Please model this.
Amino acid sequence: MAIDSATIQRVTAQLYERSLKKIPDDTRAALQRAEAVESGATGKHTLKIMLQSADAAQQGDELVCTDVGIPVYSIKIGTRVQFDGPVREAVTRGFADLVQHIDPPILKMVTNPLTHARSYAGKDMPLISFDVIDDADYIEIVCAPKAMGTGRWEAIDAFVYPTLEQIEKFVIDTVLRAGSQPCLPIVVGVGIGGTFDYAAKLAKESVLRPFGRTNPEPILAAMEKRLLDAINAMGFGPMGTGGDASAMAVHIDYAASHGFVPVAVSFNCWINRRTAARIYNDGRVEDLNW
Model:
């Protein structure tokens, strides 16, 4: 059998809508843990409101936030997959169909960077990155809409043989510059090494890592803990109201590189929008429940 375009169109649209109306289960649990230990009265109350807001959106089939972001997908294609019809076009049609039928309606967030005209469509939209999975008979689709709060404050820079301290300082400086703007508590993804574009890819993928997975690199596992502790000691707190919960997680990945070492920092807001599914050659759709 082959994966048909209609299934890709339907699944990608469903992933986008779900990302707008339900926060991931691990994210809700992280917010609950943060509320339980938050020492600031205002921050504690803010976390409670955020949880209530997320629950109300899910129960009422409403949007968690009106800034629905722009459509961003990562698709990994198994080398044993066969297609019956176009893939990129199917994702584009899926988003267009969502725009027409989603209730409540979504705002025009796709913006032409040259004219600032806003629409539901634009050059290269939806943004899609592709990769391969050896010997797999499925495609894995991750949907992670990108909104203003986090997208505005992400950063990348290149260093020459940096120390771990220099890398950590760059991450901390990026978080400090962002302040409360990314809608705290955030998830921080860091990509180290490779090339300019590859470091950004690593950061983007790291920010989407489900909570609770220990980094297999001991150096990075220790760095993640140090950075998370440092960010939460800044005192920004939930939505900038002050307190202990400025970040839920810091996730880091790396790639070998030259003497030049790019470092990229990516953010996800407290909603932590990320949904994923697999479509198999036999037509089965598996919800990865991110």
In short: The mean pLDDT is 97. The chain has two domains: 3-22+64-147+273-287, 149-268.
